[in-house]
Amino acid sequence: MGLVGAPLAAASPVLPALVQAATPAATTIPTTARFFKTGTTTASDASHFFSDQASLKTTNGQLQLVMTMPTGANYVQKLQIQGSNQAANIQKNGEQATVTFNLPNQSGKYVVEMDLQLAPGMTMHEAADLQVDLSQVKTASAEADSSQATSSSQTTTSTATTKSDHQQAQSTTQVSQSQTTPPTQSTGTKQDHDDVLQLPVSFLKYEDYPAPSESGQFFSKTVSVKPTADGYQLTFHLIGGAQFISGITFNGQKPVQTVTNGAKVDYSFKLSKQAYQQGGGVFNFDLSVLGNSQQAYAVWNNKAFNPQAQKPQPFEPPIPKPSHHVIDSTKEIQDIPYAVYNEQGTKLSDANSFYTHVAHVIKTGTSGYDVTLTIKAAKGTATFAPISMKAGPITNQTHSQIGNQDIWTYTFHVNDDSALDQPFTGRIKVGVPLLGMPAQNYGVWFAFGQEKSSPGPSALSTTGYGTGNAAAALSASGPAGGDITSQPGAANAAAITPFDLKAAQKRLAHYRVPNGIKHRIQAALVDYPIVQALTAFLVTGFAIIGGTMLWYTHATRKLKGFNHEED
């Protein structure tokens, strides 16, 4: 096999290619290939699964790189070099595999995109830099060119390879120029398929910019940009997790086109020229689980992007407000109904199904009120942790398992009796192990004074939490709305069972709580009637003993009299 260079045209680069020679041993060339983290010289995690020893060959004029995977092949779904005309050919044998890449050019530096399935239903899209030693290719090409210059049959370069290299050079120009100018201002960046540009895109946390967002693992690392008459059309490529998304918007706009292909979805949005030049925008994902939403930035131009310009103005959620104070300042202990809405405040959250919808409120002297909420789910179906409550700090939280239920409680403190009059936001961390969903933060709205709960048995009874006997209430009541995978928030419509506070207060009459420590406890201390019980026990015991002695004396006398008569 010889290596020669063959220019296709005056403006085209001279690309050496491996060609079939008379000697069969020349069909492959040994080389080395290593993976690095994108844009760095640090070894990528992919390097642990690929051998550095590789080989080069040509097939139908296409220069190819052959690598081996000693382990980890069972996780790989797809591998492809950016700019290549097709995905790599993967020949698997258990955890091992032989992978053949089509090299789009002979730069020796490439970006490999990887689709990995780490678990059923969980696909990740990653990328890594690949550096290949092509020095042997270039040396062999020079030798073959000097010794076989007269052989036209061996100076033919693969048209497919040259064309792919030419497109790769164009794509590189597009990416570099798109960082500073809109696509229409770039020179020589148009591709053959309707002037669509492929730009790198990053997904970053909305609340913690510029940290990477979890949503990024479900999207392709590139966004397709197509100029239109009045702006641009951007197409984002969802490569996994479509079953968890019930709605999606970008910069507040719904997709103008949605194309579904199995588990993959392409979402297209129209942007004005001004919006495009801002370098990024805000995604809002409505999640089918818990009825909540998540936000993330999608950024394709880091230099131009300003996250502060993307922040929306504060808004009033469309949640009904009570016409009076929710907290009765004349009461020491009270129970107040509430409902949990999604992050937009437009409908009940699915999390509402697991709250018990009645808050236990205790007055803490002159320093405000402690408000305790309870959450229940079928045992092992979910994980839960409170993150924050805008109305006041979280001061205590518990988790226990009673019967077939997981039960969480948490307490937050408010400073005055008007703190619950307006709806306020909170954040909770919820995971669904049954669906393979890790715990994530969700935003919700809390509206007090509303009696809205999920279908099913009431979370409280007239002898429940309001009496201070929390354990009895929680063990007696059923799951609030079923387990976490089955109850949509839209179905939450039933009202809770009214609570008889006066009857409960009568049963609380023998409870005593020292004034100095009321703010430290959530239930009254019980004065058990030990003296009365002991007295009753002694009286009963003496009565039994006395009766026994009287019976014995009487029986003895009768027996003695009977003996005298016989004498």
From TrEMBL:
Compositionally biased region (Low complexity): 141-189
The keyword Repressor is annotated on this UniProt entry: no
A Pfam family: NEAT
Residue ranges of domain NEAT in the record: 24-152
Database matches in InterPro entries: NEAT_dom, NEAT_dom_sf
UniProt keyword annotation of Cytoplasm present: no
A GO cellular component entry from the record: cell envelope
UniProt keyword list: Membrane, Signal, Transmembrane, Transmembrane helix
Membrane-spanning ranges: 530-552
PROSITE patterns hit by this protein: NEAT
Cell compartment(s), UniProt: Cell envelope
Signal peptide: 1-21
Highest taxon of source: Bacteria
Location of the region described as Disordered in the Swiss-Prot/TrEMBL record: 141-193
Protein known as: NEAT domain-containing protein
Organism: Limosilactobacillus ingluviei DSM 15946
